[in-house]
Amino acid sequence: MIWSNILIYFVIIPLLMLGGLALCKNIKQVRTVATVGASALMVLAIYLVIAFLGERAAGNDAEMLFTQGALTWFEPLNIKLALGVDGISVVMIVLSAFIVFAGVFASWKMDPLPKEFFMWFCLLSTGVFGFFISIDMFTMFMFYEVALIPMYLLIGVWGSGNKMYSAMKLTLMLMGGSAFLMLGILGIYYHSAPEGGQLTMNILEIAQNNAVPHSWQYFLFPMTFVGFGVLGAMFPFHTWSPDGHASAPTAVSMLHAGVLMKLGGYGCFRIAIFLMPFAANELAWIFLTLTGISVVYGAFSACVQTDLKYINAYSSVSHCGMVLFAILMLNTTAMTGAVLQMLSHGLMTALFFALIGMIYGRTHTRDIRKMGGLMQIMPFLGVGYVIAGLASLGLPGLSGFVAEMTIFVGSFQHADMFHRVFTIVACCSIVITAVYILRVVGKLLFGAVQDEHHKTLTDAEWHERLSTVTLILAVAAIGCFPNFFSSIITEAAEPIMELFA
């Protein structure tokens, strides 16, 4: 039965939170439901890691674990609620659980309409978790859409600045990507079985059948890669990202940049690369060029911004470009680095957006030209921002260093000039990142106080400290114990990367 599968509860818990929130009468009840639900998701994610490692230690070497109990949704098209996870899915679920937990406390004083905000936030979380646990293409696509749709209201109602423009731009561009993705999924489905066999949406069955003709892969691979690549902020489809981040409320920016954009990289790997290896090998150079541009362009664009959110948003374009860049290298080391980068960037960008939201809530400005000397006024938030910045520029001992070094080592394994030149170009982004991170840290936190009113501001409250410390500890854990995470990821990547050996 599907209900005996641990994975289904990653969808059930957010739905229960949604129901509980609908019954809430006051802000205290809203906070209680949100806290209990987010805590339950984090505990369940930690238990999943333990259970997953236990299965592997017991000798279960199946490509996906916890796949029992598929539920048929639509028999004529053989669509099922089929669940399963490998090491990559597991770390993405853990990432999502940590950011949802931190996001709840970062939104502790959300106003107005806190109940409605958390209800949409729960629906967004449902889509994210459902996407990572699905191994049926249609179910993945359904949860993908569930994750995207709430973004319009979360930004349009609770956002700031030019929020309606940003919400509409984000929705239209991501829905455009979804149209490409839907066409790609249908194309894969109608070529998912050998002559006379049963068509299927199950990713594992499609990969095993290896029936998608090479001629069709040339059409379907770009559709699926672009469809997911739009959400991964791939150049030139990235323009929705900075505006969306800048206008979104704090917790939505955290979940959006920290998790939602990772759906793009995960989908490119799980569907485009895995199911169409021939086209991936033949066409990778085209998308490698585009993602290489994303890495450098995003970093340069961050250098000239003065708004804290725009700086972090363009930084996310660069870092997410690095994820797609590494995936397209088509070897195990680079793929391991790509997933580590998704994990690292998800945590540190969520930390950035949480701190930016806390600073903005006090100073009522995100313009770094109007701020300075905040370290002496709010030292806790200042130290948190410095740690996030050091992780972003790749300081050893923090998650960014582990992820980027693994990517560059894996990318440089290619002996041809094309791959090595692009690897060197991507490496240059480290220097550019250091420039804008150190510039912002110096301007924002040190020197003279620019506004006399800022001297009366207070430091972080308990709920803000809890959110910040949770993310900092996670960033440090990856940097200090990289083997634990990389071994889980590598084990999952190796069978797929063997297709390109």
Q: Can you offer a commentary on this structure?
A:
This protein has one domain (2-500). The protein contains 20 helices and two strands. It has helices at 9-23, 27-57, 87-106, 114-133, 137-148, 150-158, 163-189, 203-209, 214-231, 240-247, 250-275, 277-303, 308-327, 332-363, 374-377, 379-392, 399-411, 417-445, 462-480, 482-497, and strands at 71-74, 79-81. It has a two-stranded antiparallel ribbon with strand order 1-2. The longest helix is centred in the last third of the chain and has 32 residues, at 332-363. The protein starts with 8 loop residues before the first helix and ends with a helix. 56% of the residues are buried.
Core attributes:
1% strand; mainly alpha; 501 residues
Instruction: Tell me the number of structural domains.
Output: 1
Largest beta-sheet details: 2 strands, antiparallel
Number of helical elements: 20
Order of SSEs, N→C?
HHEEHHHHHHHHHHHHHHHHHH
Q: What is the overall pLDDT average?
A: 87
Strand order of the largest sheet: 1-2
Q: How many beta strands in the DSSP annotation? A: 2
Residue fraction in strands: under 5%
> Percent range for helical residues?
over 70%
Oligomer: single chain
Low-confidence stretches: none
Shape: globular
